Amino acid sequence: MKKLISLALAFAMMISVVSLFSACSQKETLVVCNWGEYISDGEDGYMDVVAEFEKKYNCKVEYVVAETNETLYSLMKSGSVAYDVVFPSDYMVEKMIREDMLSEIDFENIPNYQNILPAFKGQAYDPDEKYSVPYFWGTVGIVYNEKLLSEKDLKAVENAEDFEILWSKDYPNRIMMFNNPRDAFGVALKTLGYSQNTTDEKEIRAAADKLKSQKFLYYMDEFFTAMPNDSLALGVYYAGDYLTVAAENENLKFVIPKCGTNIFNDAMCVPKNAKNKSLAEKFINFMLEPEVGRDNAEYLGYSSPNAAALELMEEDVKNDPIAYPERQDSWEAFRDLPDETNALMRDLWAEILTENK
Questions:
Q1: What is the pTM of this model?
Q2: What architecture is domain 25-137+264-318?
């Protein structure tokens, strides 16, 4: 009987040890939602950022991609997903703060926040610096293939006053427009001479009519394959992504029209329903490490607000006039628009896409 009890006790202890070992071996999971092609992944000799973070903190990162701010917002608003870290743009950060969708960040857990340049702190979308940490900034401009344009259009685009060249009828099925309403309306509004943050219904409807007047190819991440392989003559996209595709095709050029453009800031935030806020803040702090920031910026071509990362960069990178341009008064940062304006834009956007088929 004693032997049986001893055996039973030994078995119970073995089960406890196995259970304890299993519990200890389970890794924490961090769910990150970012934009496509927006983190260094180990190619071209640069750091695999996610892998390095997983190694440092003995955790698992579930990394998912959203194509647009509006898609990210809809997913978060539905409550069907729970991300730990998200990367919304300025106006969407502002909207998410207004709708109580973000957690306040404990900046004591983000000591590398000191690396962020003062000019990028306390911005209008998060003036009290509670909910976001800057990631990248950049501009929007015309991307064109000089080999495919006529001599007349080449001269016109090189000295572009606005985005009007995108409405040329000479390049059917070879002109690209953003496949998201805020950016697309922004281009049309700027071309018409209006603010990209207008709430005037007539101006927004005029921009919708402008978009309807051209048969665009509405793309987002498709830009990365269509532009460098000579499928597109013209398009409009982000400067950082232009630098990526320009490395593949020497005929691609970039220009910001004199009328001005959107200057954007993307940030790292922790959603209100995050399941692992502590690890999320570790991830954000890790992204601000000088070496991580440098590799992200040099690999992606986007503009870093991280002073410590900038110090490590090659001179030709941090002095690139496309990646680090001198800001102009005519450049606008998107702001959070009233709900009724957003609703109008959504309805008109659905019409635009329907008529474009």
A1: 0.89
A2: 3-Layer(aba) Sandwich (3.40)
